[in-house]
Amino acid sequence: MTRSPLPVCGPEGPLRATTPERVPAPVRAVLFDFGGTLFQVGTYADRIRTVLRQPVGEREMDRLLDGLETGLTDPQVVEAQRGRDVSSRAHRHAFTTWYASVPELAPHADALYAQLRAPEHWVPYADTGSTLARLTGGGIALGVVSDVGWDLRATFAHHGLDQHISSWVHSYAHDTEKPDPVLFGHACRELGVSPAETLMVGDHPAKDGGAAGAGLRAYVLPAGAAPGAHRGLDAVLRLAGVSSGA
């Protein structure tokens, strides 16, 4: 029987006694999620106004946004989200189905999806660039592990941040989604580090926090930060043992 590198736990604790290392392995690599962690896409209101190409008042915009919110519970939209990030086709279908759940936006579903893939529509958080620079300057290897339907390198390059990243793991290219250990393991191998030496940073408790199930450490940020806001990534510097420079 092949055993997991992690102890098997019952309801009360590990089934087999283990002797933990006296000192945890130092962090040699950090893996980052993309959207909601390092970048955020422009506001839906701005994106909608762009595709409609006409003035949209606040009351009308609220109605459109309410429609998108309601669409999240539409059975057809919910079904389209299953396996959304395992292929580019599934990703496009999931998002365009959701956009099209609002009648006024249905003719513009493809344009809204094109925005989602466009580098200029993504905004780095205020502390993204400085955090990546300090980590790489401190000798920490960096990777991106993202549930996504397209290659993110162009977005990082557009904002001058691609030089910090040495491993790119996109879910659609591996036919699976986080927290599948395959994705985290692939990034660790590309960076030449063990899972025990690696920290995963994201904003989704199950997907990004699930890296712990693959033997990594995980740090989960609270969701909902606005585009361009300060994300609180200085905590990652502390976890990685890198000086904040303050």
TrEMBL record:
Keywords, in A-Z order: Hydrolase
Secretion signal, residue range per the UniProt entry: none
GO molecular function: hydrolase activity
PANTHER family: HALOACID DEHALOGENASE-LIKE HYDROLASE (HAD) SUPERFAMILY PROTEIN, PTHR46649
Protein name: Hydrolase
Protein's organism: Streptomyces aurantiacus
Highest classification ranks of the organism: Bacteria, Bacillati, Actinomycetota, Actinomycetes, Kitasatosporales
